[in-house]
């Protein structure tokens, strides 16, 4: 679904992107460090997707997303 935003709004919305994905990067890095330090497996395409999914479960939670909106002072209508 395409949305039309008012002019000069993308710089405000970019903060949402930066905050959420900085958490995503942090959690993915932590997962990789743990896996390589303790499990010592070969890194394959399958393990890449499994670890990526694990990071997504930790980051894309309702609490993190809501706090990001609060931080940027953008409050959803519902």
TrEMBL record:
Q: What is this protein called?
A: DDE-1 domain-containing protein
């Amino acid at each position: 679904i395409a949305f039309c935003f008012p002019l000069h709004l993308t710089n405000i919305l970019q903060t949402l992107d930066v905050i959420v994905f900085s958490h995503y990067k942090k959690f993915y890095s932590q997962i990789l460090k743990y896996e390589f330090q303790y499990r010592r497996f070969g890194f394959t395409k399958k393990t890449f997707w499994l670890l990526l999914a694990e990071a997504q479960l930790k980051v894309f939670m309702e609490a993190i997303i809501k706090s990001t909106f609060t931080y940027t002072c953008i409050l959803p209508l519902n």
